[in-house]
Amino acid sequence: MKPLHEPLSRPPASLSPQSGERAARGVVIAIDGASASGKSTNAKIVAKALGFIHVDTGAMYRTLAWHCLKQGVDVHDAEAVSALCARWNATLECAGHTVHLLVDGYHPAREIRSVQVSEATPLVAAAPKVREWMKEKQRQCIQFGNMVMEGRDIGTHVFPGARFKFYLDASASERAKRRAAEGISENIAARDERDTRRASAPLQIAPDAVVINNSHLTAAQTSALILERVRRDCQLTAENCRS
Ligand code: DC
To answer: Is residue 157 lining ligand 1, measured as CB closer than 6 Å?
Structure first.
């Protein structure tokens, strides 16, 4: 197991809001990482253990891609996608401790996992104006309480002042194996290339993130490392961490 990298640069503190970004009313645990690095599984476990809400920002981008496809908007046309965002009265819903982006009051949970949407999502997510629009929506999620937000750019762009930042990683072969076990054949190298080379908010490790390489760890072990770090740093128990 690769050791945890440098400790968080800020001194331990009691439960206090992060500074910087406007939405500074709650605690944000940012979990970033590459495809199949275990973000979703661990974000859900950590959120449940702390009584925080969980936000999957990949699902938010997927919802936008689905909306574009449904509206006949060309997902290669950044201006057209951005124009759709501008006229979309997008609302957020927190149900069962999870936040969703809604299209006319509907959360397309199943539809956003289709192959077509998976292929369209990186295209819409590459547009700088779209990312700015999405960043606002993602910041608004704090209205629902303390949260674990997973994605690619949460610790670097969406909540650069987040109290806790984790970056999950695993070897490309291990990540490919995980995808295959889910029945998904994915070119991990191509996906990494696209995520890290994107001009706008590429996948990067925030300088103050704790990096966890979980190639040889179970989800239970990975989430335990995250929870241990969070609890140690703000001296919280699961009980008093509840929002
Ligand atoms: O995590 P996922 O596979 O559901 O993400 C879907 C796509 O959205 C993927 O191409 C990466 C992109 N994405 C992004 O650009 N920024 C985020 N914060 C989350 C996901």
So the answer is: no
